[in-house]
Amino acid sequence: MSATLIDGKAIAADLRAKVAAAASRLARDHGLVPGLAVVLVGEDPASAVYVRNKGKATVEAGLASFEHKLAATTSQAELLALVSRLNADPAVHGILVQLPLPPQIDAQAVIEAIDPAKDVDGFHPVNAGRLSAGLPALVPCTPVGCVILAKTVRPQLAGCEAVVVGRSNIVGKPVAQLLLAENCTVTIAHSKTRDLPGVCWRADILVAAVGRPEMIRGDWIKPGAIVIDVGINRVEAGEGKTKLVGDVAFAEAAAVAGAITPVPGGVGPMTIACLLANTLKAASMQAGLPAPAV
Ligand SMILES: Nc1nc(=O)c2c([nH]1)NC[C@@H]1CN(c3ccc(C(=O)N[C@@H](CCC(=O)O)C(=O)O)cc3)C=[N+]21
User: Fold this and answer.
1) Is 80 exposed, middle or buried (0-12, 13-18, 19+ CB in 10 A)?
2) Among 3, 135, 143, 274, which has the minimal tally of Cβ within 10 Å of its Cβ?
3) Is there an atom of ligand 1 within 6 Å of 178 CB?
């Protein structure tokens, strides 16, 4: 391996410490404790782990955590009623409804029911539109985390060729917007892209967000590129065990890249740290205070 390993775990710990320091100033100077409500519908064990980790990180940063666990059979009307109570609750500054939702629920309707000022996922069309218009917004956590990680190895991204593989509303599109705001030349590639290896090879910064284990190979990567792997795929590891792998074939890629994020320990921990930062920002803005620099 010749690439620099980008230590997402350590960088996330640093960001969480900054959020904690800013939260303690908010409490001291304004009596304000930012509150995050996380809503989980159903029993998916992986989702339950994420929700538990988010709650733990929230409390450790000095924020208030409100967990709402609803049955898998919850109706759309029941979930919308909860969202509307959380919208009206002054102790709740951020609302995250864990995705995916069960099939009887229209996820888009739920996202649009969240007050955009409390939308710490940044998934509401108002926040997506504000981001693409270059206006202040609550920005999706994983994309922000990706850009922070890339900037740890290259603080000035202006002029870089950035290739984003994946065009989802939760990662691909917003990360492309953030890289554009950093003055990168941005290409969004996807399942219909012709010559995907050739397109990836152009990248100074390659963001992989496709959700396919180890799809991006070492010989698709330009020597020296920064590789940000958003994929978190659980795969068989033999003897009945499983392991997590990214969307990038790590060992091959690390032999040619200039810097690379591991899975686990890369983008994942940054998602949670950025969620806390968004909750702090949402609480400050709702109180009419400037967004703390973290
Ligand atoms: N409304 C909504 N917002 C989300 O942000 C959201 C969601 N729904 N649904 C599920 C995905 C997934 N997600 C992760 C967050 C942190 C890690 C994370 O910290 N991963 C660690 C450990 C992973 C492990 O060991 O299982 C790592 O990559 O090192 C992973 C995944 C947020 N999501």
Assistant:
1) middle
2) 135
3) no
Query: Sign of dihedral through CA atoms 12, 271, 132, 224?
Result: positive
Q: Considering the domain boundaries, does residue 185 fall inside one? A: yes
Query: Ligand 1: which of 50, 52, 168 to mutate, judged by most atoms within 8 Å of the beta carbon?
Result: 50
Domain range for 234 is 141-267
Whether residue 92 has its Cβ less than 6 Å from ligand 1: no
Q: Do 155 and 259 belong together in one domain? A: yes
Expressed in angstroms and rounded, the spacing between residue 294 Cα and the centre of ligand 1 is 21
Residue 65 near ligand 1, beta carbon < 6 Å = no
Query: 108 with 151, same domain?
Result: no
CA of 52 to the centre of ligand 1 (A): 11
Place of tokens 């990706």: 146
C-alpha 183: how far from chain center: 21
Q: Rounded to 5, what percent of the chain is helix, strand, coil? A: 45, 20, 40
Mutate to test the pocket of ligand 1, among 38, 67, 232, 242 (most ligand atoms within 8 A of CB): 232
> Same domain for 126 and 197?
no
Q: Say what the pLDDT of residue 293 is.
A: 85
pLDDT of the residue at 45: 83
- 200 and 147 share one domain: yes
Q: Given this model, what pLDDT does residue 23 score? A: 98
Number of domains in the chain: 2
Structure tokens that stand for 54 in this block: 């988010």
pLDDT of residue 164: 99
Q: Are residues 90 and 55 in the same domain?
A: yes
Known binding residues for NADP(+) are 166-168, 232
pLDDT of residue 163: 99
Angle between helices 267-286 and 8-30 (to 10 degrees): 20
